[in-house]
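Recall the central idea of this unit: under ordinary conditions, the amino acid sequence of a chain determines the structure it adopts. In this exercise we apply that idea directly, starting from the sequence alone.
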Amino acid sequence: MKNIVKIFSVLFLLTLCESLYALHLDVVYPKEGDRISAASSDSTFIFGQVLPPDSRLTINGQPISVHANGAFLAFLPVDYGDFTFKCTAFNNTDSVTQNRTVTISGPVKPCPIDSLMIKMDSIKPSGNIRLCQGDEFYRVILGYTQL
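Accordingly, the structure predicted from this sequence is:
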């Protein structure tokens, strides 16, 4: 009976060790289906972790640096509308691919200088905003164009 317990213990430890070294890719941001504003440019960032950390990573075919702890952060070009990040982690024996499809909103259209515009799908302020006589704003702030 002791031999059977030893055999199962060894098998359990081998399985545990194998799972610790299995290739793993976790894209933390963006989440699937996120709506991302690329208001001022045609690029955005993506980050996550690859384990084991000595693995290699490509996103949309572009090599991405992986830090010593397995973390990665990339600033990549995007197209407006539905856009997919194809993330592939690989090492000498395995590969794993994870796709993230998001919607990239285009740049904010300028508002006429004598108008007030609220862009409804923009980031909302966390509280009330009070404009007092004499306040002047010449750029978009949190989705509001004010003069």
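The two ends are 83 Å apart (CA to CA).
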